[in-house]
Sequence to fold (180 residues):
Amino acid sequence: MLRPVVCLLAFLTSFRIAFAQQTNITNEMVMSSGMSVTVSNEVGTITVTAGRGFERRYTWDGATRSVKLWPRKERWNGSLGAYYPGPGEHWKNNHGITRGVLEEGQQHFKTLENAMSWINLPYHKGCVYRGDGLMVWWGRTLERKQLNVEVWQIYVAGEKPTQLVGSHDNQIMVSQSTKP
Fold:
């Protein structure tokens, strides 16, 4: 009888320690509550709006869909931000889209050359970025009924850049509301 109790106590203690370690993480996010980013590219226009915490709203093709991003517990591909892997068909259909694969975070580089190499990776084709390093990539994968959105803030040597070659500041608009 004592053995199951000891096992349960050991489990709860390890759970508390793991939870305490996880809560000390400060995720490196881009957007703050009430912030909206509107981006236009060859696919069309999308607006991403930050709600409270990890809540995000995505508006495209005349409709809005929401999710709560999952905070990363460890750095993945350079990011300690948040993501949503799009499990199942979690949204009401919007022009064939029923799920979102979403990501937001910061990318830190030692040099401007490293940052530009990352921006120009093949899977970022069609991304839009500003001179200050705010970058958004979005598109649709209709065969998977999927909306893909990545929101990044690029840092070079610990600072936001002031000018990036190929930036399109006029294609990304940022606004801030007092209401999330």
Summary: Confidence is low (pLDDT under 50) at residues 4-21.
